[in-house]
Amino acid sequence: MAINIGSPCNTALLLFILYSVQKIVFPSASPPKEIPHEFRNGYSWLPKYHQPTVLFKTYTPKTLEPFHGNDNGRILLAIDGTVFDVTAGRNFYGPNGMYGNFAGRDASRGMAKQSFDAEMLTPVDQPLDKLTDLQPDEIENMKGWIEHFSNKYIICGKLVENDAV
Amino acid sequence: MALSVSNLLVTDDLTIFLGLIAGTVFLLRTFYRPQPLVHPILLGRQSEVARVRNPGESAVYRNYGTGLMNRFPIRPHKDVQVLSDLLRPDQDSQRTLWNTKISNAALQDRVASFGTGILRLAGLRSQESNVLILLNDCIEFLIADLALSSHSIPSMTLTAPHLLSPILDTHPPSAIITQAEFLPTLLELIYDAGEEGKHHTIIVVGEPSHSVMASVASKVKILVWADVEREGFKVEKIMSPLPKPADVFSVSFFSDSNGQIQGTQLTHANVTAGVAAIHALFPVSSMLSTLDTIISSHSLGGTYGRAVAYTALFEGASFATMTSSKLFRIDEVTVKQDVADILSAQLHAIPSATILFLKPSHLETLVDAILREAKKSFLLNAFAWRHKIADIAEGFVSKDTLWDRLVYDGARARVIGEGAGTVRTVIVGEGLLPAKVVMPARVALSCPVINALTHPAVVGPVLATNALDLQNFTKLEESANHSLALVGPPTVSIEAKLLGVDDTAIEEGGEDPTGTLNVRGPPVTRLLAGDEMDTSASGYVNVHAGESAVDEDAWTNLGVRIKVHTNGSFRVVA
After folding, report:
1. CATH number for the domain including A91?
2. Among A10, A33, A48, beta carbon nearest to B566
3. Buried b / exposed e across B209-236, counting CB within 10 Å, b at 16+?
4. Rounded to two decimals, what is the model's pTM?
């Protein structure tokens, strides 16, 4: 059998073999130009963004009110001076949710009395509800809700009086 | 046309032959790639980040393995509550500590004898006296530490020799333990301090010379260590009530970055948490065991060195330290931290070292020496380097490859000596490692190199890289002008946050948070209050070995500027 590498198939195969062997014997030793943002694209990779974090802010009833979620924005509500980010519970606290009244408002009284009526809310331009007329068991109930919210949602701020800021 | 197409596709036996070779080569290239030691997806999320952050601060970061919800591991084993529990009674194998081959039971006996002896002969009282340990690293240091802690007598240690005279002034001890060589220097200092009527008791390790003994003043009582141990051995052992994990058993004095002298109180819980943290540095496939030999360049007077020594004790490994960790010398020589220093630890009667705890200068000189030796076989080294770098780029490194056998094993043996083949992990701490040393170190040592951030106020490492992390960010480091290597995420029992970050930059989302590192967690010790240290003339500041009220919310500012990358690993920035 004459060694006839002249035929195109053989040439192609030979070139392929030479190329692969070259890659095995002389592997590339320079790091990639760009740091990949996916682990599939390279071993030395970095995610593109940091994990999102929420800045702990001080809210007043007026500044809390815009976060009612009607505009697909964040939904916040406050219980006993602690503001929770309940955007994850849009089904409950969004505009069409069962508890939609609470979005953007101080829900302390409603949580204590286990009621979602509008009369549980104080208007935003008035001082915060002092909750002095609540019974001990209602205070207990409210604390239980605070516990539930702390576990399920993010605490992202505190609520103070309108003129305290 | 048909003719030319069939001419093009003419095949013969050679084609089949070449086709088989091509197929084999292709399969080789595709499937014989080295597997990364740790999956890169895990390296993209090394810290668990809190969802909320306070203004001016970054979020709180914890190790991803610990998570935000879980409690910190505070002991390496559930039965280890106080320091003496670190000597496990169920381990009965002998191991060598410096030059002494000893088992846990025998060591426990020596500790009990010394404890009893020192209580009887030096007149110390539990919870009222305190002892200054001025020993270079040796087994007597550990025996003294364990004995004093079991009798609730707080000990004091120094991290640098120049702290001795200020501490003798501000915190005069009831007794001092020192070496025979250092005794004349110590006596000079005591006489210079010249407090009339103050009695000193000094316990000397080794045999003090007759001339020194003759010059001892009447107010100083000298006891020889061997006598103290013998005294305690022959009488019935004094049992003291068991200390509680939150009791302070030692105070370590160090000078911070401003030159101020600070003291930090170590509790039993701090040390057990530090041992757990060091234990967690090692991946499950290569954990510490009794077969290991640990050599350390960190002196036992500091918190990190103590954590390393107690880890060795707990794991039943052999242990020795290097010459540069000796603090109390009579000559003015500063030992250079280089390869000779590393080899000095091997001069002890320990088996060949497997785990090295080094400082950055040790690593730099070691890697330089190994690569220089490797370059002597010029052509092979060019291939070997290239292949090693290509393997590391895939996330794999090993000491068993062809290139190690051809080039690097020989180079390592010429530098480190016979024991070069046993080194299996290197941990760098107590210093700042330059970024450009990292890749050469991985090639030269071909074993996990862990870069850790340490601080005198924390027992054990604060931040440490993943042992199997081989990522290479040299392009990023060059473009952003980072000169120091990554130090990884917080260790398993530390939570960290940065103060003084730029809120607007972070909210925009483009910037990495940069600020001052603050930490909290079981291994973080409580500093002695600042004003206690400043009063040098007014009175005797007593260090009580009692319940130290741990302020759960207190963060300790370590004073290091840190930047956090998107994958949760930290980097020290200037």
Report:
1. 3.10.120.10
2. A48
3. eeeeeeebeeebeebbbeebbebbeeee
4. 0.87
